Structures are given as structure tokens and as C-alpha cells.
């Protein structure tokens, strides 16, 4: 969570992490079994002008790294009113 705050703060001037939430998701690979979790939600409001190509590349690298390192099935981000779910993570750069 600290890395998320640092990344978003550096790129977009700030972010807020909410205390652990209670969530559930359906694991279709396990016959639709419900998986409960306690995620931390991080919110960041950014000026569209701050979404430069460089910022997008850094944000992408962070999100893919988060997915790999936390062994996530999906990392989600909302930009504007559109949800982007990332399920295939880039390999770590050498």
C-alpha cells in the first residue's frame, strides 16, 4: 500500500488509502466458489493533463508489478468512468 501511495502521490500529487474493506469474488476456476478477502482501496483523483505518456508507463509498470508480486488474479483501475482489469502481467524488466 505504501508503494501505491508513493507512486500515485509522485505521479498525480496525492492519493488516499482506505482502511481494510471486506470483499468477495467468485473464483470460476474453483467451480464458482466465493473467495473472501480484506482489500485496501486506494483512490487518486488526477488532472487529465497529468496522464502523460510517461506517467501512464510508470503507472502501468506499478500495476503490473503489483499483480505479479502480490500474486493477484486481477488488478483493477478506474480511469474516468471506465474500469480496466489487468489479468496478464508483464514480466519484470531485467
Strand order of the largest sheet: 1-4
N to C succession of SSEs: HEEEEHEE
Class by alpha and beta content: alpha+beta
Please, how many helices? 2
* Arithmetic mean pLDDT: 94
* Unreliable spans: none
> Biggest sheet, open or closed, and with what strands and sense?
2 strands, antiparallel
Outline: globular
Strand-residue proportion: 25-35%
**Helical content band:** 25-40%
Compute the separation of the termini in Å: 24 Å
Domains (count): 1
Count the beta strands.
6
Features:
alpha+beta
Description:
The structure is a single chain. With 94 residues, the protein is of the alpha+beta class. It has one domain. The protein has 2 helices and 6 strands, in the order H-E-E-E-E-H-E-E. The strands form 3 sheets. The protein has a two-stranded antiparallel ribbon with strand order 1-4. Strands 2-3 form a two-stranded antiparallel ribbon. A two-stranded antiparallel ribbon has the order 5-6. Helix 1 packs antiparallel against helix 2 (53-69). The longest helix has 17 residues, at 53-69.
Which helices and strands, and how do they pair?
Elements: H1 2-12, E1 16-17, E2 23-27, E3 33-37, E4 42-43, H2 53-69, E5 75-79, E6 82-86
Antiparallel strand pairs: 1-4, 2-3, 5-6
Structure in a nutshell:
By secondary structure, the protein is α+β, with helices and mostly antiparallel strands.
Amino acid at each position: 500500500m505504501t508503494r501505491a501511495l508513493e507512486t500515485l502521490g509522485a505521479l498525480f500529487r496525492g492519493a488516499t488509502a482506505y482502511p481494510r474493506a471486506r470483499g468477495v469474488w467468485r473464483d470460476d476456476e474453483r467451480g464458482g466458489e466465493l473467495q473472501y478477502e480484506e482489500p485496501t482501496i486506494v483512490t487518486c483523483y488526477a488532472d487529465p493533463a497529468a496522464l502523460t505518456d510517461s506517467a501512464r508507463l510508470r503507472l502501468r509498470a506499478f500495476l503490473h508489478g503489483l499483480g505479479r508480486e502480490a500474486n493477484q488474479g486481477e488488478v483493477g483501475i478506474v480511469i474516468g468512468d471506465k474500469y480496466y482489469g489487468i489479468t496478464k502481467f508483464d514480466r519484470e524488466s531485467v
